[in-house]
Specification:
Elements (H helix, E strand, L loop, with lengths): L3 E7 L12 E7 L7 E10 L28 E8 L9 E4 L6 E5 L4 E2 L15 H13 L7 E5 L4 H12 L3 E6 L2 H9 L5 E4 L5 H8 L4 E6 L3 H8 L2 E9 L20 H6 L2 E4 L9 H13 L7 E5 L4 H9 L6 E5 L3
Parallel strand pairs: 8-9, 8-11, 9-10, 11-12, 12-13, 14-15
Antiparallel strand pairs: 1-2, 3-4, 3-6, 3-15, 4-5, 5-7
Bound molecules: NADP nicotinamide-adenine-dinucleotide phosphate.
The site of NADP nicotinamide-adenine-dinucleotide phosphate has 33 residues, from α1, α2, α5 and α8.
Length: about 325
């Protein structure tokens, strides 16, 4: 084992678009364990759209990352050394070790992970990504067979799983994504009924064409102009699942809205509801069991988009916010 720890720090707080230069690499000594702590080595780092929200100067649903601190991040790690009776070297754990090769964490911040193949599923379908899709579609969207289900950032980590879960429940599924390659993948590989390239097509007319009876459930990952267009195409008694608003995360000129609320919601009796996956923690075993079963039965396809090396983490996040990724973006730190 090395005596040095590679870390990625937040060097400057971004205003407007994020660049790799907002981060800096540093080598630090390996942490020394206190009683009750566990030394973990990062195998994979989860790159999430929400990472950009954690860089805002004010608290969101968690405190902001401080300038000069190690960047926060969800990780899949291996126990290297333990001063806690519950953990042994070699065990696989999920934790928020952040963007660094090693971390010393109190045992209560670790969650043991069953070794499946590939182990990365613990950060994609069997991680917060999978559960966000699961609870968003079933608990907030309450999809019913025969309904039209629309999802944005559809070729991303959460969106690609949300669309497949709605399909498994008998919906007609339409995806909105940013390239023709993504739209092809959604239709040909994931079985979506239609896909709209919002960067190339006129979104309002494409929605009318692909959702002629209106949208029963809109799983919104992006907000902004996509939400603005969809709001007016909601079917009576439709549901808008507010999962995230990635179109405003990385800009200094966010488009807030949409216009027409609450009027159109009232007239069409539409329910618009936000949620955080952590609200559903008590039902984690149910979600993990269902997602694991669908994976084992080949009913859920997972695509992982893996970049190599901790030093590629800033590029991985900047690229995700530009729409580079297909599926779940990860960084292999010590894969
Ligand atoms: N509520 C919760 O508890 C919870 C938990 C996890 C994630 N989330 C939310 O889920 C959403 C997806 O997150 P993720 O981590 O899975 O990321 P992701 O979907 O894998 O990647 C983000 C995608 O957003 C799209 N995008 C970027 N800028 C856009 C814009 N201006 N307009 C429309 N689309 C844009 C890009 O695809 P295109 O090529 O299609 O543009 C990009 O690939 C985010 O809103 C996130 O905050 C919520």
């Amino acid at each position: 084992m090395t005596s040095r720890n590679l870390q990625v720090l937040l060097a400057r707080r971004p205003e407007g678009r994020l660049h790799e230069s907002h981060f800096a690499l540093r080598e630090a000594p390996l942490p020394v364990l206190a009683p009750g702590e566990v030394l973990v080595r990062t195998r994979y780092l989860s790159i999430d759209a929400a990472n950009r929200v954690w860089l805002f100067p004010v608290a969101s649903y968690r405190p902001p990352v401080e300038v000069g601190a190690v960047m926060d991040g969800i990780t899949l790690c291996e126990v290297v050394e333990s001063r806690d009776a519950d953990y042994r070297p070699g065990e696989l754990v999920k934790c928020d070790a952040g963007w660094q090769a090693y971390a010393a964490l109190p045992a209560h911040r670790l969650r043991r992970v069953e070794r499946r193949t590939p182990i990365t599923h613990a950060l994609s379908a069997l991680g917060p990504t999978g559960r966000t899709a699961y609870f968003g579609v079933l608990e907030i969207g309450r999809v019913k067979a025969g309904e039209t289900f629309l999802v944005s950032a559809a070729a991303g980590a959460v969106g690609s799983l949300a669309g497949q879960i709605a399909k498994l429940h008998g919906c007609r599924v339409v995806g909105v994504a940013g390239t023709d390659e993504k739209c092809r993948w959604l239709k040909e590989e994931l079985g979506f009924d239609a896909a709209i390239n919002y960067r190339a097509e006129d979104l309002p007319s494409a929605l009318t064409r692909h959702c002629p009876g209106g949208v029963d459930v809109y799983f919104d990952n992006v907000g902004g102009r996509v939400l603005q267009a969809v709001v007016y195409r909601m079917a009576p008694h439709g549901r808008i699942v507010c999962c995230g608003e990635v179109s405003v995360y990385d800009t200094d000129a966010p488009l807030r809205g949409p216009l027409g609320i609450p009027g159109i919601l009232t007239i069409r009796r539409v329910r618009m509801e936000g949620f955080l996956v952590r609200d559903h923690e008590a039902r984690r075993p149910e979600a993990d069991a269902a997602l694991g079963r669908w994976l084992d039965e080949g009913k859920l396809k997972v695509r992982e988009d893996v970049l190599e090396g901790l030093e590629s983490a800033p590029r991985a996040l900047v690229g995700l916010l530009r729409g580079e990724n297909i599926g779940k973006r990860l960084v292999s730190v010590a894969g």
